[in-house]
Write a structure and sequence with these properties.
This protein is mainly α. The chain is 61% helix and 1% strand. Strands 1-2 form a two-stranded antiparallel ribbon. Strand 1 and strand 2 (10-11) form a beta hairpin. Helix 5 (78-89) packs antiparallel against helix 11 (198-209).
Length: 363
């Protein structure tokens, strides 16, 4: 990770250059990332189009899923509604049915693949339904069978602007996968190792993503920047910014969106978003604020979303979840294809911990 995140060996700039886009010079289509993650090969535009068509054919959400979500008050956090919606979809699990009737373990990956593709296909409508009932008074926007996965998702959220469609293509692509050590990816892998189906595994991962130290990071960045502008102004000097940063740190808080537990180069996902902003919103005051050593992906995504009108910050993690599905579910298919065993983390006794602490402090 010191050299930056890679997708099947390709850097993000390489993916942007090699993977098919919706238009000349545009952002790569998420369907291309999905093909790459599943096969390890760069697809042609025709192959990407087959993925788009396949996902479209799988996208019908059963009515009881909406009934389950509607049982929640509209004040329920969108991630609570998303996890409930995914659990409601579990009644459709092909793997659960196959396992119940008896299936050879070498074939596990086949119904896991079907579940994964079905879930990826249905998440946009579930997410759009949550957005509508929570923030838009229940006004729904029809799916468009003539556009790609990301553009259709944006339209179901109520955004017709082609630039917002391009942003959604970029957002889903760069958030689709990350090395397996992050909470959501590892949780899906861990729960799936018990042969829980993709719906159960993904729901567990989404509960991890909902944690403030994981999926809420981009909205925390945006709030911090908005507070900075409110208190200091958008035309801030280096001295004023340094003082505000010091004030934040002195209060026992962190400056969100800057630095990374693993990355030691500037997060390439941030750089992709920066290039997008330089191209489409170079003079936006909030964009100009997003500068610091080692900025990560969360330093920028919230700023871009609010610029194009998606201002409901509690929904940002749901967008993250829809995108992350492409990566973690691809990994889950490969977990079963490779026959990986159940994961059994080691445990430590208190005696071991006490001895470790004594030796560490003694040193």
């Amino acid at each position: 990770m010191a050299s930056g995140i890679r997708f099947r060996g390709f850097s993000l700039p390489e993916c942007q250059a090699k993977l098919p886009a919706a238009k000349e010079g545009g952002e790569p289509l998420p369907e291309g990332f999905l093909w790459l993650l599943l096969t390890g090969e760069v697809p042609t535009k025709e192959q990407v189009d087959t993925v788009t068509a396949d996902l479209r054919s799988r996208s019908k959400v059963p009515g009881h899923v909406f009934d389950v979500i509607n049982a929640f008050p509209v004040t329920a956090h969108p991630m609570t509604q998303l996890t409930a919606g995914v659990m409601a979809l579990q009644t459709e699990s092909e793997f659960a049915k196959a396992y119940e009737t008896g299936i050879h373990k070498t074939k596990y990956w086949e119904p896991i693949y079907e579940d994964a593709m079905n879930l990826i296909a249905r998440l946009p409508e579930v997410a759009a339904f949550i957005y509508s009932r929570t923030y838009k008074g229940g006004v729904l926007h029809e799916a468009d069978p003539n556009v790609d996965y990301a553009a259709n998702f944006a339209q179901m959220l109520g955004f017709q602007d082609e630039l917002m469609h391009e942003l959604m293509r970029l957002y889903i692509s760069i958030h689709s996968d990350h090395e397996g050590g992050n909470v959501s990816a590892h949780t899906v892998h861990l729960v799936g190792s018990a042969l829980s189906d993709p719906y159960l595994s993904f729901a567990a991962g989404m509960n991890g993503l909902a944690g403030p130290l994981h999926g809420l990071a981009n909205q925390e960045v945006l709030r911090w920047l908005q507070e900075l502008v409110a208190q200091v102004g958008s035309d801030v000097s280096r001295k004023q910014l340094s003082e505000y940063v010091y004030k934040t740190l002195k209060s026992g808080k962190v400056v969100p969106g800057f630095g990374h537990a693993v990355l030691r180069n500037t997060d390439p996902r941030y750089m992709c978003q920066r290039e997008f902003a330089l191209k489409h919103l170079p003079n936006d005051p909030m964009f100009k604020m997003v500068k610091n050593p080692y900025p990560n992906v969360d330093a920028h995504s919230g700023v871009l979303l609010q610029y194009f009108g998606l201002t409901e910050q509690n929904f940002y993690t749901v967008l993250f979840g829809v995108a992350r599905a492409l990566g973690v579910l691809s990994q889950l298919i490969w977990d079963r294809a490779l026959g990986l065993p159940i994961e059994r983390p080691k445990s430590m006794t208190f005696e071991y911990i006490e001895n470790y602490c004594e030796s560490k402090f003694a040193a």
